[in-house]
Amino acid sequence: MDEYRYDHQTVKGFIVSSIFWGVVGILIGLWISIQMWHPAANIQPYFTFGRLRVVHTNGLAFGLGVGAIFGIFYYITMRLCRRPLLFPRLARFHLYLFNAAIALAALSLLAGYTQSLEYAELEWPLDIGVVILWMIFAINIFGTIFSRREEQMYISLWYIIATVIAVAILYIINNLSIPAGLLKSYHLFAGVNSANVQWWYGHNAVGFVFTTPILAMFYYFLPKSTGLPIYSHRLSIIAFWSLVFAYLWTGAHHLVYTPLPDWIQTVGIVFTMFLIAPSWGSVVNGYYTVGQDWERAKNNYLTKFFILGITFYGLQTVQGPTQGLRIVSQLIHYTDWVPGHVHMGTMGWVTMTVAASVYYIIPKIYNTEIHSVKVANIHFWLVLIGQLIFSITMWITGIQQGALQKAVNPDGSLKYTMVEIIAKNYPYWEMRTVGGIIFTIGMLFFIYNIYMTIRKGKALQQA
Amino acid sequence: MAGLHETLHKRPIIFALLATATVLAGTIVTMLYPMLRPEMHPRLENLKPYTALQLAGRDIYQREGCFYCHTQTVRPLKTEVLRYGEYSKAGEFAYDHPFLWGSKRTGPDLARIGGKYPDAWHYRHMENPRAFFKESNMPSYAFLKERKLNPEEVERHMNALGFPYTREEIEALKDKTEMDAIVAYLQVIGTAVKKKEVQVEAKVVEEINPLSGKPEAIKKGKEIYEKNCEICHGDDGKGGIGPTLRDNVWLGKEGEISDGKLFSIIADGTQAGMPPFGTQIDKEGIWSLVSYIRTLQEKK
Ligand code: HEM
Ligand code: HEM
Which of B2, B76, B283, B293 could form a disulfide with B87 if both were Cys (CB 3.0 to 4.6 A apart)? Predict the structure, then answer.
């Protein structure tokens, strides 16, 4: 184990940092959810909804999501290559740089420095920092893979390779901009073209931050925790290549009924429908994997995290393509339905799978057991309930918004003003905050459990 | 195929190249190729680049994240055109770096906000949206009034985008606040497409109010008035952002006004800041308003 000790500290560093940024992001999530029904919770100029929302999304996508990806990918890559990282000190530097970048990102966004491109809001100096971070990561991952001591690359490594490549292409192209000062720039692209580039990026940020990396974790940790091999290798191969192929065609489903040329919308929608297939390839593979020996699988407390996570992924990837259809988009686009969709994916699939992976890794690093399975079970049920309340209330109010906006009087005039419709959302927005609080309490149980496990592990090391 | 893949798993470089090619396929067809086509770079003939003040306002719109609550595209759907006006055209956005269409409508779409309200409305609304609509969850932006623009910075931004400007224009920014800038920006959004003059073509409008003098109609008219008109025309029509409704001056002209003309002012709005209500209030409602307004005139 000693050979890995230094790298494991780096992995742990990423995991702890990602949890830290996760807490920040989630608390800001609660805050903006309160601002929705209690506008007095806006504090001008720095803490208004428009400035905090972007800290919430970036904090969680990049702080929690990408932080966990860095740490967990390093861990998986070492295991699958049977060797420590090729550049251990570079990885440690990567950890420090990552935290510095996220801290600066949060501050700069609160100060209002933003490119106004969803999930690519950071201004150009920070973009350069992000690209450097990603290059360091790529060098270490590829370096370690090239010098691996295991001939075959396992499924998770395929997803890791695809993630590293795709994110680099996406991030660099969408952030091309005209600098107009140290902290101000304008998108290189304009109007319709700018929209098309942004949503090509935006959808694939979801694809290559919230989907492929999480699948890499799923394919590695599900067999590890249950002791059962992935059910079908062939299905994994087909699902991988078709997913990575199709994702890039679908960005236009975020721009249905906008002035974007119709043909691009239609191509986007067609590939969006197709995406159900590779997505469900992984879902089915997961189900059959535990189906091989359910008695055995269900004995591990992590199985339910992974199976529920992949179930939400399955629901997400049916709901997503449905949303892309013109007839459905008409009703739910721009409404609260979409945050319902988003949080089923982020809370139900991403956070669930990441948490389970962390539960697996931390005791392994310290060569011990998790502090308490009971606490992990409480964590599981609370985040599940919190997430369901969040998503279901948003789906209901989203459909209501869509329907009321379309309602007309017998003579053809509109039945409701926007303000009347907004007033009807308040009870649902309040319920969402309740769901969010339950979710947050669940996450606190998780953090407590990890903290106690690390403490136990440190004591063991010293002994 | 599985056999081929077996070899592939042993060759990370080939694997990575193949993955890159796979990712690039959709990228090229749906993102890079369209960029070469003129349909991605249309420009309406009467679309003008932003002035220095308007661009400063747009920068503030970006900085404050207004687009997380407001969209700027009207979809070509019947009820949406009724609510907001003409649907958005690709050629309206040629100077938008980046586009600000947004993805969520917590508040109304703003693609046709330009000219919908008088400036005074925006100043008061931005300062405290709940003064107009107590159910609004839009943040207050009173601090924009306190902040002065920085002309050098705005000039740098104009240069970066290559927009034309004059020296006087930049000098004039010295005395402007961020609030002036954001209102100037809001007032230009969507104005390259001409507003429809008539909102309610389909409604056959009688020349004489069928509900004239009816007490229930007056009561209903008063209710509608308080909900929709009071913020501009004041209580009981005494005037405010909009003109008084108690005198005999109508759109600047003195004299009697017919019921039909009153109906069409309310239904179609005017180019000078009276918003159209014909798509929001049904015909009976508008006639009730006319009945109510007639009682105000008697009050003077
Ligand atoms: C306590 C838990 C959470 C609460 C209360 C919360 C609340 C919110 C709210 C109020 C919004 C704005 C929705 C709108 O504009 O209408 C939002 C957006 C968003 N949140 Fe969360 N959130 C939570 C957890 C998370 C987590 C764990 C993630 C990711 C890992 C996440 C990712 C996002 C994203 C990506 C958006 C943007 C959605 C869009 O553009 O439609 N949230 N959240
Ligand atoms: C096959 C898979 C999926 C498809 C086809 C899909 C489709 C869509 C569509 C059409 C929208 C736009 C809705 C609208 O604005 O009208 C959307 C939004 C979104 N989806 Fe999915 N989705 C999929 C899976 C996922 C997954 C797994 C996540 C993980 C978290 C996710 C996260 C998001 C986010 C964050 C947004 C909001 C984007 C924004 O407006 O800022 N989606 N999705």
Answer: B76
